[in-house]
């Protein structure tokens, strides 16, 4: 007999309670702090609509070493009947070994019986196996360290969204940009605009993470890249990553359906020598 969504959510709630007891010192961070509460209310009949998917990160100190790793997890509503989305990052891994590790971790998860809760087992697998990939990373770094230290692709991405309102999303954008050493801005409200600039791999990681697993009304409108030897800071248009909140107008009701003053935004772009991007983002020429 097929497992229902309700039964899957009951199992997810059970696993989250177990994981939170395993990591009581804030090693487990929920993307939406209320996601577990929403599932509980749905199961109790207090909430009628299906709760959002659970997404969280587990920050791990690998046993018997100084290595740290982060496991990012997204649980589909049909998990554990459907495979969870799991991705691991660690500064101790080069990109090749990180990809190898995640492929092997994915194979391990797929080898388990569907219907079986597996996140705690994935954590244990990571702790048992990551040292092998770290050792390989060190070996791979030896002949290429000079090139990796001096050669980069500077990248800038202009991202457009129908709107950016939710506080947890805004915090996620700021946190990810700062963690990845990206500069730029996030224009909140309606429309929403994000500009990020920095090392290309870190820009692409940011782009992959913020729209994961499914941000419908968002697109990358324009990109700029340049090969750089040495420091990249001279190519940056922005000194830091900041959130922009300009004068708004419109309906301040429950939906917070307000529009940003695009004239102020155009002036901001002008101050940073990138007013040409206004037409690319909005399809109209900016007027002063």
TrEMBL record:
Question: Per its UniProt record, what PROSITE patterns does this chain match?
Answer: RWD
Report the residue ranges that make up the RWD domain in this protein. 14-133
Query: Which Pfam families has this protein been placed in?
Result: Prp3_C, RWD
Q: Which residues cross the membrane?
A: none
Question: Which ranges of the sequence are coiled-coil?
Answer: none
Name the record gives this protein: LOC494695 protein
InterPro entries, A to Z:
Phi-like, Prp3_C, RWD_dom, RWDD2A-B_C, UBQ-conjugating_enzyme/RWD
The record's section on SUPFAM superfamilies has: UBC-like
